[in-house]
Amino acid sequence: MMLLALALLSPANAAETAADPQPAPFTPFDVQYLAVVADDADEDGTGEEEEDEDSVKSEKEAVRSSKTETKPEENGKKRKRVIKVIEKKTFMKIGRYEVGPQIGFVTNDPFLNRYILGVSLDYHVTEIFAVEVQVDYSPILGQEGNDNDPDWKPLTKQILDFNSVSPDISKLDAMGSVALAFAPIYGKAAVGRNIIAFDIFGAFGLGAIHTQDDYAALQVDKNDEDYLSTASEWHPTTVISGGARVAFSESVAARLEGKATSYIETINGGTLEMKNNFILQGGVTFFFPNMK
């Protein structure tokens, strides 16, 4: 473009430009207009491309560093623009198994102490949904017919010793369930100088509970036919649970949950009762394979 401008420049126009500082009227072959265009461009014609490439590079660097980008001065003022970046989750569950032991107890039984030992196994189909299997065992600790039975609470001893009443007591001793779990809430918390990840989850499922009638509390003969007909039974049950999981690393987490069960059982051969147990349990779980 410089060559074109020089070629079109005539001596008359050059003298007129030098003598008169006022801009000449625009013509299709206006030398001043062409010279201005030529001066704005780089000699190699790549000024705009280099500026665009520099702008793209600066934005990429700002995104990587999550820092504030300072734009060139405009009208004597610096403008700043904040680049928002979504941080990668430090704890992922999708496609991984979660397994671990748990301990707990039944919180709402007024007559019996029931302690729970169990294990849970989850397969996380997505970050939110998982299939869960749990197996629990509750050992019977008491001696049959003994007032010092550690499974009996003070209320049971009082009823039997002072009120001569036979409470309908059955001891939960085993349980298994399959449930669909979901964890819609994920977050992070600062504990001292460490950042830990956590989520809140719930589960709905079905299972089976095994119970053993307490003939001493029922005050019946343990060889009675009516008693024996329903002394040991499995009962279908619904399971609803919810809790929180705290991840200490990519593979280890602590878990605390409450689980409600509802089932109907037959006691002493003919008495139907609706039983609702609430189990509070917690433990440590391990995830495998490693995060991708």
Describe the overall structure.
The protein folds into two domains: 2-82, no CATH class; 97-288, Beta Barrel (Porin), CATH 2.40.160. It is 22% helix and 43% strand. The chain contains seven helices and ten strands. An eight-stranded antiparallel barrel has the order 3-4-5-6-7-8-9-10. Strands 1-2 form a two-stranded antiparallel sheet. A hairpin with a 4-residue loop joins strand 4 (115-124) and strand 5. Helix 1 (2-8) runs antiparallel to helix 3 (31-40). It is elongated. The model is unreliable at 1-19 and 26-43 (pLDDT under 50).
The end-to-end span amounts to 57 Å
Give the strand line-up of the largest sheet.
3-4-5-6-7-8-9-10
Radius of gyration: 39 Å
What name does CATH use for the topology of the largest domain?
Porin
* Low-pLDDT runs: 1-19, 26-43
